[in-house]
Amino acid sequence: MLLLYVVLICCGVCNSEEGDVGYDLNIGNTIDVFANYGDLSQVTQVVSADYEDDGQEPIVPFSEKNLRVFANASSRSVVGGSMSNMEIQMCDTFEDLLNTYFSNFKIEGTDRPWKAFMGDWVVDEILRTMGIMYDGKLENCCYVLVKWKKPHTSAQLDELTDVAVKDHVSRAVNALNASDASEVRRFMKSYGTHYIDSYVTGNFIYQVFKYKRSGYNLLRAYIKVRNAQTNNSDNLRFYFASYFLKQVGDIRVASGNKTVEAWARKHLRESQYLYSRPSLLKLHYSPILAYKLNELLDNGALLGLDLKTLRPLFKDRNKAEKFAEIVENDLKLWEVNA
Length: 338
What we know:
- The structure is a single chain.
- The protein is of the alpha+beta class.
- The protein has one domain (2-337).
- The protein has twelve helices and 13 strands.
- Strands 2, 4, 5, 6, 7, 8, 9, 10 and 13 form a nine-stranded mixed sheet that branches.
């Protein structure tokens, strides 16, 4: 009888812990960044992909394994929003392009979060997701990222100062020797390295233009003047002329929605001399098309994510800092080797 009681208690603990495991986007939950480091885009919908969508599986922004460790954490969220105005982002180098694309993604302990998402990808694969064909040359090339985004849900975790930690997690924290790197790494695999502090879901449409250096400098100077002006003069089309460009990228949708991408390629075309090409600039000059696109964009992409190290799990500040130091040192090593 006693043995049966012990078994039932153990099963109850196991079920409780299993119930804390999720694969959706759960604010406050923890993930192990190293589990999919270099290819986090496999479990987060952040870039388009070169596959045919059969429409059978719904597109979800986030599917990484995560664990609930805080017993009573609270958060606030805002749902809804219309498509923002066009963003023109200047990127001096290929790495600038990646840093800019992932500028709304933060992983505490690294200054280059794009490495966690695409660090294991070869250059050719990365450029294809950006709609650009790799020509073997990255030096002396500049890029301009044009995008329109439509946020859907924004969530922010509240302060964790007085938040309780789940009992089984608290026991593991108390038993952890934070001075032993190997023990800390085993803890990471069980309970994670970072928690989800905030996120934004929605979708955005983007296009990359590969520029000659001279044309890029002219566009940058024009945008600086344009932003300072109060009149409505707009000569953007001139600075996106083929004369200044090395390559015009394909239009992509962050969620990978092939139906929306096909619509964009058909309707967002601009004439250039004897031929036409896809261009997001057409949205800037056509409110009707912008309105239609706003209706088409789904909520299938992750627009922003802020991950913070698990310091709040530890009541002992020194233990927290030792844990964070090992996590962040490992991140730097993985970043260099990715």
